[in-house]
Backbone:
C-alpha cells in the first residue's frame, strides 16, 4: 500500500497540472472536444486524490492533518471538490482554470515535502479534532473559491464598464452567474466553518483545559465568521446585489487569510500544532 | 453537366438595383412559366433583397447566358441594370456557387443564418412548379446538407453580427437569467422593434415599449405581448427595468445623468443595463461613471460586431473544405448516371443472347430440363456480369474525372459492340464532349 501511496503522491500534481492545462487551453481556444475531456480529467484526478488520502489514513492510522503538507493536500482536495460540485450544479465550465490553480500549487508543495508520519502527538489523533479540521478546511475552501469568483466578478465588471470585449468578455460567465457562484460558495464555507466552530467549542475544554476564549485564533475566526454571516444576510434579507456583496466576501476572505497568518505565525496560539 | 446560372449580389450591384430586382413569389411563378416554355428544362430562382440567383439547364443543352439574362432583365425592367451586374456560373462552378450561397459564406454578412431557409424555399417553389429534375434535386439535397454541416461543424454562424444582437449579447454577459428580468425599449422604429424581438426570443421576463406616437408603441406591444409605457411618463418608470434599450430618432438627449442617478437610488444600486442604439444618442454617456450602470452605444457595440465578423471570416476555409467534400460526393454520384445505361445495355445484350439460345432448345428438351437449363443460364449470367457491373459502378463513384468514366463505358460498349458501331476513338471523343 505504501508504494501505491508514493505513486499517487507523485502522480497527483501531474494530474492536476494536466487538468488545469486542459482548462487553460479550452479557455483560450474554446474547443468542443475539450469541454467534456477536461471535466473527465478533473473527476479522475479528484477521485484518485480521495483514494490517496484514504490510503494515507489507513496506512498511517490517522487523518492526513498532522503536518502542514498533509493539510495542504487536504486543502487542495477540498477546493477541487468544491469546484467539481459547483461546476456540475451550474454547468459553468469556464472558471476552472482560475480555481484549480490553487489545488495545483498546494498539491505540488504537499507532494514535494510531505512526510510519512506514523507517530504523531496524541492530540492530533483525536477523532473530534479530525472532524473539526476537515470541516474547517472545507469552510476555508468555500471562502477561497468565493474569493476567486469575486475577483473574476471585478475583472469582468471592469471590462464591461470600459466597453472592452476581449477574451475575458467572451469566456467568463455573466456577472450574475459569478455573483451567484461566489454567494453559494460562501454559504457552503459558512456552514462548514460554523460546524467546525461548534465542534471546536465542544472539544476545546476537553483537550485544552487551560485555554482562553480570548485566544487570537478564536477571536480572529469569529470576526471573519461574523463578516461572512453579515454578507450572507445582506444578500438574503437585504437584497444586496452585485459589487456590494462581492466586496463583503472579499473583505471576509482577506480577514480570514490575515487571521491565519496572525494566529499561526505572529502570535502564540494554542491552535498551532506544527 | 450543362447547369448554367447568373447571380446579382452585393459584389456586383448597389443595394438599389438589388432591391429593385427582387422577385416576389408570384413574380417567380410567372417567370418560371416563361422559362419553362422558352428556355430551360429545369431550374430554380432564389431572390432576396440582397441577391437574385437564376440557375437551370437549357432545354436543348445550349450554354448561353444571354438567354437567361435577357429573360430576367426583360421580365423585371429595372433602370440601370445590365449584364455587367451579373456573375455567371457554369457546371462545376455553378454547383460550387450554390453551395457557397447555402452556407452563407457568399452573403453580405458572413454566416447569414437566413439564407439556407431562403434557398430551401426557392428549391421548394421550383419543385411545386414542376421545374426540377433529378440533377437539380440532388443539387438541392446536397446544398441543404452542406448548409447544415457548415452550421454544425464550424462557427460560421456564431456571435452577434448586428448592433441589436450585439447589444443583447452584452446584456447576457451581465444578467444570467433573463426570465427574471424586465426590459424597456424606447422607440418603436425598426431598430427598436428588432431589439424587442431579440429580447422576447431570449425569454425576457417582462417587456415594455415606449414611443412618442402611442399607436406605433401599441403595434409593437401587441405583436410582442409587451406593456406600453406612456412616453410622457417615461422617467417615472425607468427604475422598474433592469435593461433599457433606447432607439429613438430624437435630436437631443432623452435621458440625462441625473435621471439615471435617481433610477439607481430607487433601485438601491441594483445593476441596470443601458443600450443606446440611437443616432444621435438618446442617453447621456456620462452615466457610465455610475456604479452598477452599464452603458453601451453604437460605437462600442460595433466592436463586438467587428470581432464576431472576424471570427466568422476565420471559419470560411473550414466551410470551403466541407463544400469540397460534398462536391466530390456530388460528382461521384453524377458520374454514375452515365454508367447506369451502359450496365443496362450490357445486361440486356447478354440476356438477349441467353433468351435466343434458350428458345432454340425449348422444343428439344423436356419441360423440367428446360426449367433447369433456364435457371442455370440466369445464375451463370448473374455471376459472369457481377464483376463488370460492380467495377463499372466503382469507377463511376470513385472517379471525379468524367473522361475516365466515359472511356470505361465506351470500352465496354465497344468490346461487346453494344452500339453496333466499330469506331471506338470517335465515340470516346463524342462522349467526352457530350459530358462536358
Residues:
Amino acid at each position: 500500500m505504501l508504494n501505491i501511496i508514493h505513486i499517487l503522491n507523485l502522480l497527483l500534481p501531474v494530474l492536476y497540472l494536466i487538468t488545469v492545462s486542459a482548462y487553460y487551453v479550452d479557455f483560450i481556444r474554446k474547443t468542443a472536444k475539450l469541454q467534456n475531456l477536461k471535466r473527465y480529467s478533473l473527476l479522475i484526478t479528484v477521485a484518485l486524490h480521495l483514494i490517496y488520502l484514504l490510503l494515507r489514513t489507513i496506512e498511517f492510522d490517522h487523518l492526513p492533518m498532522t503536518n502542514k503538507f498533509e493539510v495542504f493536500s487536504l486543502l487542495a482536495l477540498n477546493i477541487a471538490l468544491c469546484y467539481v460540485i459547483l461546476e456540475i450544479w451550474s454547468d459553468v465550465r469556464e472558471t476552472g482554470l482560475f480555481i484549480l490553480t490553487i489545488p495545483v500549487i498546494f498539491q505540488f508543495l504537499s507532494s514535494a515535502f510531505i512526510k510519512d508520519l506514523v507517530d504523531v502527538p496524541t492530540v492530533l489523533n483525536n477523532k473530534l479534532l479530525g472532524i473539526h479540521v476537515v470541516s474547517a478546511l472545507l469552510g476555508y475552501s468555500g471562502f477561497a473559491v468565493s474569493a476567486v469568483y469575486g475577483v473574476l466578478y471585478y475583472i469582468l465588471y471592469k471590462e464591461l464598464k470600459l466597453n472592452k470585449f476581449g477574451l475575458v468578455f467572451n469566456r467568463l460567465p455573466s456577472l450574475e452567474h459569478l455573483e451567484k457562484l461566489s454567494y453559494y460558495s460562501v454559504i457552503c464555507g459558512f456552514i462548514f466553518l460554523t460546524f467546525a466552530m461548534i465542534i471546536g467549542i465542544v472539544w476545546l475544554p476537553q483537550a485544552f483545559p487551560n485555554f482562553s476564549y480570548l485566544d487570537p485564533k478564536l477571536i480572529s475566526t469569529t470576526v471573519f465568521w461574523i463578516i461572512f454571516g453579515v454578507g450572507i444576510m445582506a444578500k438574503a434579507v437585504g437584497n444586496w446585489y452585485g459589487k456590494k456583496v462581492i466586496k463583503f466576501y472579499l473583505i471576509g476572505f482577506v480577514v480570514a487569510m490575515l487571521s491565519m497568518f496572525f494566529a499561526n505565525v505572529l502570535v502564540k496560539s494554542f491552535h498551532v500544532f506544527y | 453537366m450543362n447547369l448554367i446560372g447568373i447571380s446579382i449580389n452585393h459584389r456586383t450591384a448597389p443595394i438599389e438595383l438589388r432591391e429593385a430586382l427582387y422577385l416576389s413569389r408570384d413574380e417567380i411563378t410567372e417567370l418560371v412559366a416563361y422559362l419553362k416554355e422558352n428556355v430551360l428544362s429545369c431550374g430554380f430562382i432564389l431572390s432576396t433583397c440582397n441577391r437574385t440567383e437564376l440557375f437551370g439547364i437549357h432545354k436543348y443543352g445550349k450554354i448561353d447566358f444571354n438567354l437567361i439574362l435577357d429573360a430576367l432583365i426583360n421580365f423585371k425592367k429595372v433602370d440601370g441594370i445590365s449584364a455587367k451586374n451579373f456573375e455567371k456560373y457554369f457546371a462545376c462552378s455553378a454547383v460550387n456557387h450554390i453551395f457557397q450561397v447555402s452556407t452563407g459564406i457568399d452573403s453580405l454578412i458572413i454566416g447569414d443564418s437566413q439564407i439556407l431557409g431562403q434557398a430551401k424555399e426557392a428549391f421548394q417553389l421550383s419543385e411545386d412548379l414542376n421545374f426540377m429534375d433529378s440533377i437539380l434535386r440532388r443539387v438541392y439535397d446536397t446544398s441543404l446538407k452542406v448548409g447544415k454541416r457548415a452550421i454544425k461543424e464550424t462557427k460560421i454562424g456564431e456571435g452577434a453580427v448586428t448592433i441589436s444582437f450585439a447589444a443583447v449579447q452584452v446584456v447576457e454577459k451581465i444578467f444570467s437569467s433573463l426570465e427574471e428580468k424586465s426590459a424597456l425599449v424606447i422607440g418603436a422604429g425598426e431598430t427598436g422593434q428588432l431589439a424587442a424581438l431579440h429580447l422576447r426570443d431570449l425569454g425576457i421576463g417582462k417587456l415594455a415599449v415606449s414611443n412618442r406616437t402611442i399607436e406605433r408603441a401599441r403595434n409593437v406591444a401587441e405583436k410582442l405581448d409587451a406593456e406600453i409605457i406612456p412616453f410622457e411618463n417615461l422617467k417615472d418608470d425607468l427604475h422598474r427595468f433592469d435593461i433599457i434599450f433606447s432607439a429613438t430618432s430624437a435630436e437631443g438627449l432623452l435621458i440625462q445623468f441625473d435621471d439615471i442617478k435617481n433610477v439607481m437610488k430607487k433601485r438601491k444600486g441594483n445593476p441596470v443595463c443601458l443600450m443606446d442604439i440611437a443616432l444621435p444618442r438618446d442617453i447621456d454617456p456620462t452615466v457610465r461613471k455610475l456604479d452598477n450602470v452599464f452603458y453601451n452605444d453604437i460605437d462600442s457595440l460595433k466592436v463586438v460586431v467587428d470581432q464576431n465578423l472576424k471570427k466568422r471570416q476565420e471559419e470560411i476555409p473550414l466551410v470551403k473544405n466541407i463544400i469540397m467534400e460534398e462536391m466530390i460526393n456530388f460528382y461521384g454520384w453524377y458520374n454514375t448516371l452515365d454508367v447506369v445505361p451502359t450496365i443496362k445495355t450490357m445486361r440486356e445484350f447478354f440476356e438477349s443472347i441467353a433468351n435466343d439460345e434458350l428458345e432454340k432448345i425449348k422444343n428439344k428438351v423436356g419441360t423440367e430440363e428446360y426449367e433447369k437449363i433456364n435457371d442455370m443460364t440466369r445464375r451463370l449470367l448473374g455471376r459472369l456480369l457481377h464483376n463488370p457491373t460492380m467495377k463499372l459502378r466503382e469507377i463511376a463513384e470513385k472517379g471525379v474525372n468524367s473522361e475516365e468514366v466515359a472511356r470505361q463505358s465506351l470500352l465496354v460498349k465497344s468490346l461487346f459492340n453494344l452500339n453496333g458501331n466499330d469506331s471506338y476513338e470517335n465515340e470516346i471523343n463524342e462522349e467526352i464532349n457530350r459530358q462536358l
Q: What stands out?
A: The CA atoms of residues 174 and 251 of chain A lie 22 Å apart. The mean pLDDT of chain A is 87.
